[in-house]
Amino acid sequence: MDDVVSGEFDHKTETTARSVQSYIDEAAHWRDGTPLVGTPMTRMQWRIWYLAAAGKFFEGLIVFMTGVAMPLIAQEFQMGKAQHGVIGAASLFGILIGAVGLGGLSDHFGRKRMFIVEMFLFLVFLCLVCFSPSYLWLAFFLFGLGVALGCDYPTAHVIISESIPSRMRGQLVLSAFGFQALGALTGTVVGYLVLTNLPEISAWRWMYASAIVPALVVAVARFWITESAHWLLLKGENSEAEEQISLLLQREPAYPKTVRLAEPNGEANRANFLSLFERKNIRATILASVPWFLQDLGTYGIGIFTPTILAATIGHKTEHVRNIADLINNDVLAAKGSGLIDVLLIVGIVCAFLFVNKFGSIKLQIWGFVGCAVGLAIAASSTFFHGGTEIALIFLGFMTFNFMTNLGPNAQTYLLAGEVFPTSVRGTGAGFAASFAKIGAVTTAFLFPILLADIGERALLLGLVVTSLIGAVVTWAFQIHTTGVNLEEIGGE
After folding, report:
1. What is the pLDDT of residues 145-168, one digit of tens each?
2. CA 46 to CA 28: how far, in whole Å?
3. H-helix or E-strand containing 319?
């Protein structure tokens, strides 16, 4: 090891002004100048990562837990089909509003400040959901939860992206996003455990209550992270940006010993929401938002109502519910089936993590959309059969869909949305993309139970096959490659 300058930590004092990303991306090298593979992450960078991952976990937990809780909620408040759809869509509609309404505020008030605000907002509404006195209040509180989660969409992504090395960005953002799938699986497991230990109508309140303490821990911990030096420099806070980048890269032995940041492009400060639709950004806006919209048409509709669909096909289900025991039994069976399928979400995101640097986000998104279409087509074909064959095809189709969506569009749309915009509108652009996507999610969540009853599973699933194929075409037509590319260079494009 004598031939290695350990991280090149013996450099002379910095005299040349450099960009934020050049400090973050700087890697140690051998004495002859050959760079070592990778840049070691600091404690602060890991702290930012796992606190951002926690936000995605809570989103998956709450949205997918609603699918398990829905039969109990419907029974307690005596809900019809339309009300059922409103409850299913409430948190998704909140995400739509929060992503565009609050997510863009990180471009004005800072990444860290909104990162903290969103989690406390989530905590307040989570507590209120547990004590909802009526159907209308529950819908409102779930909407509030969604607003907080919507803010988290762009803010969590941006705060990770602007704090870590370029070559690791894709994998770390995807691994944080993967906690959404872990949250979805946890939501179904928690629902199952609560139902088996507390077999009564009010069990759904305890499902949501299980997240209160973990959310409080995460909210408080977010006070102890650094602000984005990219954002601070853009706002003219040069000395503060240099201080924050030093704290972000604090390591032993200390390097860099001094930080001197170069001035950013002055034009960036004049950017606003309308900048997303200017010629220089419109390609990024379309790529970030349209495929995500098409992907959410399938993912949220399938995800939220998977327990309902499975309950109609899994054996031992009570066809005509006569009492609370029958209702609980059906919900337990649905939770088991949903949990088995949700496992494939985690497998998919693990594969996305492993392959993103090898194949790039664009290829994985295109392949994923095509795979989703195949899975949905298999599920649609189940309507031609009965008994064991029908159940097998539904499971195979949904499992294929869940695997391919997290390998491709469900993961890659989130990743691309936070990478393709310049720093000045990165939060706004990612927020708009998430909000536009949730129009598809809200529409699907509200209409899915109605359409399921009116036109049947086959027509509904075949319609989603078409939207998935359109997603593949749009991704190919407007592709922007970001994998491993310096964040400042992407913004410059």
Report:
1. 999 998 998 899 899 999 998 888
2. 19
3. none
- Separation between Cα atoms, residue 168 and residue 153, nearest integer Å: 20
Q: pLDDT-derived band of residue 12, with 50, 70 and 90 as boundaries?
A: very low
Confidence of residue 292 (pLDDT cuts 50, 70, 90): very high
| Burial zone of 378 (CB within 10 Å; 0-12 exposed, 13-18 middle, 19+ buried) | buried
Domains of the chain: 43-492 (1.20.1250.20)
CB 25 within 8 A of CB 486: yes
pLDDT digits 0-9 by tens, 220-264: 999 999 999 989 988 888 889 889 999 999 888 777 888 888 877
* Terminal alpha carbon distance of the chain: 40
Q: Dihedral (C-alpha) 472, 97, 430, 473: value to the nearest 10 degrees? A: 10
Question: CB neighbours (10 Å) of residue 8?
Answer: 18
**Helix (H, G, I), strand (E, B), or coil: what is residue 140?**
helix
Region 125-138: what's the mean pLDDT? Answer: 93
SS (HEC) of 400-457: HHHHHHHHCHHHHHHHHHCCCCCHHHHHHHHHHHHHHHHHHHHHHHHHHHHHHHHCHH
Longest dimension (CA), the chain: 79
Apex CA 370: angle with CA 342 and CA 414, to 5°?
Answer: 60
Distance separating alpha carbons of residues 367 and 471, to the nearest angstrom: 10
